[in-house]
């Protein structure tokens, strides 16, 4: 085989392993984070709806609070009609439960759009990897039927 072709093949393989697979890992990590965020918002939405359906927001409730290292204390929440939501950069805003549901639904919609974009980017990166592998096989003289 021609040394220039071998050099090109080595460059393609290096590009796949060093660049494309690293990009794919980063995208997968971002996708997992976004999916976890959606799950948290869905769980919060469920809790708020349970509060509204059982009138806990007016009567209050008892709970256990983790104060780190799996050390729990019992707490009583007398007024559950408002909730603090993290709006980013460590800032929290107080919302009524109805307002919080609106914000949560918007955040879920935004996260789902970001997830769709990440999935497209992952598919595009996988396509680039396959395309380069096909090019490598062609350079090696091993034609592949697609």
TrEMBL record:
InterPro entries: Prefoldin, Prefoldin_subunit_alpha. One of its GO terms (cellular component) is mediator complex. GO terms for molecular function: transcription corepressor activity. GO terms for biological process: positive regulation of transcription by RNA polymerase II. This is Prefoldin subunit 5. Pfam families: Prefoldin (PF02996).
């Amino acid at each position: 085989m021609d040394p220039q072709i071998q050099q090109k093949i080595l460059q393609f393989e290096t590009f796949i392993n060093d660049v494309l697979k690293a990009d794919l890992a980063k995208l997968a990590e971002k996708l997992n984070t976004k999916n976890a965020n959606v799950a948290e918002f869905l769980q919060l939405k469920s809790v708020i709806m349970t509060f509204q359906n059982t009138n806990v927001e007016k009567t209050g409730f008892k709970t256990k609070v983790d104060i780190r290292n799996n050390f729990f204390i019992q707490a009583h929440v007398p007024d559950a009609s408002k909730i603090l939501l993290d709006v980013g950069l460590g800032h929290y805003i107080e919302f009524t439960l109805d307002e919080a549901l609106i914000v949560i639904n918007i955040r879920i919609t935004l996260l789902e759009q970001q997830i769709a974009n990440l999935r497209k980017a992952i598919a595009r990166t996988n396509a680039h990897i396959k395309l380069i592998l096909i090019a490598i096989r062609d350079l090696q003289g091993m034609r592949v039927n697609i």
